[in-house]
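Structure tokens please, single chain.
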Amino acid sequence: MRDGRSARTPARVVLAALISLASLASCSSIAPGVQNAGLVGDIGTPLTDQDLAAWNIDVAPDGRGLPAGSGDVATGAHVFATKCAACHGAQGEGGLGDPLVGGQGTLTSAKPKRTVGSYWPYATTLFDYIRRAMPYNASESLSADEVYAVSAFLLNRNGIVPADTRLDAASLPRVAMPNRDGFVADPRPGRL
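Here you go.
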């Protein structure tokens, strides 16, 4: 022993390495009698098309992925009042949650106000976001009809659609948002 280390240190290192390898080898077996065919192998349960459909709810800017259903501004006002106003204010002016209306013409100012009506490039993005994430305390709880209605209400509050508007999978992608040309197009093939 020259510097206080044991002469058997290399043996301890080898022993520790062997124990680690044995531990890893035992973790790779799932259960007795189950064949492990690699990293994926027989782990888990195969997903059905129905399982995937529950997760595959994205909506593209051109409207691909929009579900059946429809909603109008008046119904949207009622749904908004009961499920959205507590966070976003009675008319979408903001509160605990972000403001959703106003801000047109402010994006180039010193204090831009990024709202549905001033910033968002596609009405379908509004539908997609509401459907996935709102209300904050109960995401994905709104029906397709309710999401179309709330979308119609917010687009109306921003002066984008008239008060008698009814939106559905055919009409929503045709809504021209004020900032539609304010973003750089995705250069990847097949992207909007």
